Amino acid sequence: xxxVTQLDSQVPVFEEAPVELRCNYSSSVSVYLFxxxxxxxxxxQLLLKYLSGSTLVKGxxxxxxxxxxxxTSFHLRKPSVHIxxxxxxxxxxxxxxxxxxxxxxxxxGTKLSVKP
Amino acid sequence: xxxxxxxxKFRVLKTGQSMTLLCAQDMNHEYMYWYRQDPGMGLxxxxxxxxxxxxxxxxxxxxxxxxxxxxxxxxxxLESAAPSQTSVYFCASSYTGTNGYTFGxxxxxxxx
Lengths: 116, 112
Prior knowledge:
The complex is a heterodimer.
Chain A: E1 3-6, E2 10-14, E3 19-21, E4 23-26, E5 30-38, E6 44-50, E7 56-58, E8 64-68, E9 73-78, E10 87-96, E11 101-106, E12 110-115
Parallel strand pairs in A: 2-12
Antiparallel strand pairs in A: 1-4, 3-9, 5-6, 5-10, 7-8, 8-9, 10-11, 10-12
Chain B: E1 4-7, E2 10-13, E3 19-25, E4 31-38, E5 42-49, E6 56-57, E7 64-67, E8 73-78, E9 87-94, E10 102-103, E11 107-111
Parallel strand pairs in B: 2-11
Antiparallel strand pairs in B: 1-3, 3-8, 4-5, 4-9, 5-6, 7-8, 9-10, 9-11
């Protein structure tokens, strides 16, 4: 069965420090990969996505992620975080069956807490 | 641009009551979804629709029903609410599989 694992449920970090939020997936077919951010009491907003091509993708707010097919990972990184990055981050996978796509499968989320 | 609009934003129900959550999108998206979000559980798919007049079960469909009579609207119904259905409900829509989803701002439902 396909699954998405976010390895850390909570990540505390100081302002201006780098951060990495880890995501691993399992799938028997090729995938599309997404990271979403959820600010308190809001819906989810797309940060970035990997569909094909370059394995390093850049998103909004200075975030980037790298697709590693051999490791089945899609870790999210930011070189210097701000207080405003405090939010919950969700990794998601969509299976690619060639002519159609499956539904998004979400990880359980990682709460990023940026401290001054 | 309204995007995806969910109504109501908050609701308190008594056990056994029924209610309908409305999701409306103005982006002409084919696909629509209902998720529930619970602490530590991420988002779990309740039902989805790949087009007007079609619906399908997701991961946690029990206790819920849906309808997609118009392309822009996707309704989620609870026939007899239970405390286990206390959750935040999110609607989302998508044009194609490569575009990701656009989410509504959520409905916080409490069943007492």
